[in-house]
Amino acid sequence: MAIDSRELTEHTGPELPEVGPMGMALDWSWLRGVKSEWGVVAKPSARGLTMMDIAVGSYGEIPDVAPLRTMAPRGSAVPEGVPDMGYLLNRKSDVWAQNVSELYEEAVARQWSATKDIPWGELQPLDPDVEHAMCQLCTLLTEVEMIAADLPAKWLWRVNHDFVEAKMFLGTQIMDEMRHTEVFRKRALANGGGLLKAGKGTEELLRTILQAKSFTQASALLHLLGEGFVLDIFRQGELISPTHVEKKMFRMAMQDEARHVAYGTLHLRQAVEADPDVAEEIHEALDVGEGVIAQLTMQPEVFTALAVLLAGGTANVEEKGFPLLQQLMAKMFTSYLARCERAGINRIERTLIPLEMMGIDRTKLEVA
Amino acid sequence: MTTSPATLTMDIPVDSIELFEALAKEMNAHPEIYQDLGWCDMDIGVVMRRDSAAPFAVALRLREYGCEQVTMFEPGGPEKLDCWLVGDLDRWKEMFGNIAANGMAAGEQTLSSLVLLGDCIAVKGPDAMGVDMFFRYNQTLQCVFDAAASCATARQGE
């Protein structure tokens, strides 16, 4: 909002000098005239002063369309002639999610350290096949996790500063994903196995996500599809972990990933509600993304490593590993379709994932 | 005649509000554990289907680093919960028995595993955000349930 000189309050205090000691004209408008919400007090809640607590008065009003493209804090008085930052995402529906402030605070409260919160010293020598499988999975996860940092980082500077809470949340996501990259790289190296085979299919998926044309398409590919699948892998951490060390690693990462998926799901819902035509854009992105992720999940090095971990070794991989993995994959795709529904995108009829091949009866899909 | 070795068993019936009150008490007695994990605001229900009785259903009101309230509720009633976990009483007994024996849930008896397999215990909720909370606060929830180990006593197996 530009300063409106007609709103200047009457100067009631002592006369203020108009010229400074070195002869420059002085500006006292911040003291006497700015249209601020003087007297509006943000009160801390039990856990401190949260972003929700400071969303008071006009400061809590998020514009549907940002009136300016500056870095001026929302709610401040913006002088005429401030530079245009060239932001591209200027509509609330471009980036917002109704839960974004809560998710930001939650992210800050639930940060953890890959250095000290995982009991690395308690790792035990494992059966070599299981160690190989864990290292192969960690290679994949190290490869894919950074996309969820790179992608928000790519878009972050294009987001209008009026949606600062969304920018702050995306900042936490970047930090979370750095930590995931760190923890899986550390696990690969901490027990003598090391990094194994990177994937061509993996790289194709990452490129598809990174090259999305809009943030909303990118969010659909990243939060809904990519992170949704990774979240399900982390959930499987309970079954694939050979020791409590890996269990903790997956459990901590799962909480972070669930936040990202929660943001994406409600962001997409907000985008579709604001403009139903956006749904088709999201569908188009997912048409491509689903094909790529279906290939990725069937990629031999991914499939076999997960199956060995589920079987607890290579001996029972056919009897136990493959059937269990097939069952879990069906759940992964079912969860993904349910998330799409929650986001306001019905993919049940349109999905290109071979549901029947995976034993999923699409007529019986239940939205959780 | 030989006797089986001493095992840890739950001292309080699984389908009783006393157990969940004890879990709440444990949680409130150890804020340092939960502060490390980060705050948790959610209302979660636990529903145990029983063969010969109405389901046992209890709700935990988790706020900050503690549990503010434990109440019984009627499944399908007006209780406003973020999500609830539903399973047969036997599955819950198995889970709590595992916690009692190991000091914490082990193997396939963690909440996340049980929900993942789906045929054991299911997570349900009225909307997307509620169900997501189960995963977002999973470490906290697991700690709350693992505290059942402190309600266990050593007993000679029969």
> Would you report the number of β strands of chain B?
7
* Helical residues, percent of chain A: 40-55%
Cα-to-Cα separation, first versus last residue of chain B: 11 Å
Chain pair with largest interface = A-B, 31 and 26 residues
Numbering strands along the chain, what is their spatial order in the largest sheet of chain B? 4-3-2-5-6
Contiguous helical run count of chain A? 12
What structural class results from the helix and strand content of chain A?
A: mainly alpha
Task: State Rg of chain B.
Answer: 15 Å
Proportion of beta-strand residues of chain A: under 5%
Query: Overall pLDDT of chain A, averaged?
Result: 91
Number of E-type strands of chain A: 0
Overall outline of chain A: elongated
Helical/strand content category of chain B:
alpha+beta
**Are there runs of chain A of 5+ residues with pLDDT below 50, and where?**
1-8
Structural features, described:
The complex is a heterodimer of chains A (368) and B (158). Chain A is mainly alpha-helical and 368 residues long. Chain A is built from twelve helices and no strands. The longest helix of chain A is centred in the C-terminal third of the chain and has 31 residues, at 244-274. Chain B contains six helices and seven strands. Mean pLDDT of chain B is 87; it is low at 1-5. Chain B starts with 5 loop residues before the first strand and ends with a strand. Chain B is α+β, with helices and mostly antiparallel strands. In chain B, strand 3 (56-63) and strand 4 (66-72) form a beta hairpin. Chains A and B meet through helix 8, helix 9 and helix 12 of A and helix 4, helix 5 and helix 6 of B.
